[in-house]
Amino acid sequence: MGEKESANIMKQLLSAIVYCHSRNVVHRDLKPENLLLESDEEGARIKVIDFGTSQIFNPNKKMTVKIGTPYYIAPEVLSQSYTEKCDVWSCGVILYILLCGYPPFVGRNDFDIMNRIKKGIIKMMGPAWEVVSEEAKDLVKHMLTYDPKKRYSAQQTLSHPWIKKFCKQTIDIEFTKEMLNNMCAFQTQHKLQEAALTYIASQLATNQEKEKLQTTFIALDLNGDGRLSTDELASAFTEYFGPDFQAEQEVESIMSRLDIDNNGYIDYTEFVLATINKKRLLSKERMILAFSVFDKVQHITTYYCIRMGVELFLLRKSKESLV
């Protein structure tokens, strides 16, 4: 696989891990088998799966349960004293394989493999590595640093020059302005209405409907942690609407209305809820599917009540936009 494709995969993987670590969640079993393509199209996004071995961690306390998969397990996990940086090691092994086609630690059996992991000696030699850039090798070294204290964090990997070189985002300026305007116009809804819209936007919208939103969100998410901070939003408003725009006041207002879980950030689901085109999104078929989630009996009268509530919301928004 070429370096550009490898970098794009790694940025998506590392962004997911940065988000997990920011929520004090460690995966502990990252490997290619737990990365799925969203579709079979070229450039399809990846999904990180299988959180069966994940755990909420305490940043001030080491984890001790030895868990993971040979080839990808970090040496400190084998010593049963580790932090969330075990995920970075596993990502480093994945990157190593993407660049050369084989794992850094091999053996006749799992016992041999884990003994070599315990030694932690990384070699990047042979024909496959002769064509790999020094920047890529440098990132591998930082991710597979034996001492976890000296190893890069997931956040640091996203700032590496090799990732930035190949993962520049092309953004539609007019579409981005439209999305930012939609965020400004977003109003808090009734809890049931909000839940229905969230479900439809996150679960029933097509990939095509979400593609531009995903691209825009990634471009606005400057540090790649999977959420938008007040500083990132203020920076976006200033960039697209000019220095005279009251960015800080607008962002404060947006946060008060859109930060549903009150974590101080705009998560991707919240972003989609505020910016997606609701008139196209709220088809009869999708509302029926959403209704089935909230009411197993599926009383059609209740469906029309929900539909009426949503339509009244859209009508009110339409009138407000004319004022």
Summarize this structure briefly:
This protein is mostly helical and 323 residues long.
Task: Please render the helix and strand layout as text.
Blueprint: H1 3-22, E1 25-26, E2 35-37, E3 46-48, E4 55-56, H2 75-78, H3 86-100, H4 110-119, H5 127-130, H6 134-143, H7 154-158, H8 161-166, H9 173-185, H10 191-204, H11 207-220, E5 227-228, H12 230-241, H13 247-258, E6 266-267, H14 268-275, H15 278-281, H16 284-294, H17 300-322
Antiparallel strand pairs: 1-4, 2-3, 5-6
Helix pairs in contact: 1-3, 3-6, 9-12, 10-14, 10-16, 11-14, 12-13, 16-17
How much of the residues is beta strand, in percent? Answer: under 5%
Compute the separation of the termini in Å: 54 Å
CATH fold annotation of the largest domain: Transferase(Phosphotransferase), domain 1
Poorly predicted segments: none
Number of domains: 2
Could you spell the SSE succession in H and E letters?
Answer: HEEEEHHHHHHHHHHEHHEHHHH
Q: Given the helix and strand composition, which structural class is it?
A: mainly alpha
- What does the largest sheet look like? 2 strands, antiparallel
CATH architecture designation of the largest domain: Orthogonal Bundle
Number of helices: 17
Q: Helix coverage percent of residues?
A: 55-70%
* Level-1 CATH class name of the largest domain: Mainly Alpha
Tell me, rounded to a whole number, the average pLDDT: 85
Sequence of strands across the biggest β-sheet: 1-4
For the secondary structure, the number of strands is 6
Using only C-alpha atoms, the radius of gyration works out to: 23 Å
